[in-house]
Amino acid sequence: MLLLLQRVTRARVEVAGETVGAIGPGLLVLAGIEPGDGDAEIAKMAPRLLAYRVFADEAGRMNRSLADTGGGLLLVSQFTLAADTRSGLRPGFSTAAPPAEAERTFSALVEECRRLHAPGVETGRFGSHMTIDLVNDGPVTFLLRS
Q: Could you report the per-residue pLDDT of 103-137, keeping only the tens digit for each?
């Protein structure tokens, strides 16, 4: 599982011109699901992304997490994160989980994050062509791997 965390002042995802998820200050997380990802990865990664310290404390250091700030979380499935880009000029997608497996795993990740982060979890729409509008704060972006 690959989670690309971006600290944002706001983010929104649209499908066919309709906003399906939006947050104010918080994290936009693009999730790449790999073959075999499941309960073990979710149990590890959901708490980790909520506790990852990317927000400034009073001294300006990145010592506060999403759980500390109560900010929004916008989770968007993005199979291209799991692409094989080691050679050639076109990505390969055999390293990404098949759609049915990826949807089950992504949905379970969303539910676990909702269980752990009461302030709010928004999502895109799995399998849809989405447009994401965001303001990256910093910019601050981290890639977490399971």
A: 999 999 999 999 999 878 999 999 999 999 999 99
In the chain the domains, ranked by start, together with CATH numbers, are 2-134 (3.50.80.10)
Q: Which of 6, 55, 79, 106 is catalytic?
A: 79
Given the residues 6, 55, 69, 80, select the one marked as catalytic: 80
Torsion of CA 33, 37, 41, 42, to 10 degrees: 70
Q: pTM to 2 decimals? A: 0.94
Active site residue 79: yes
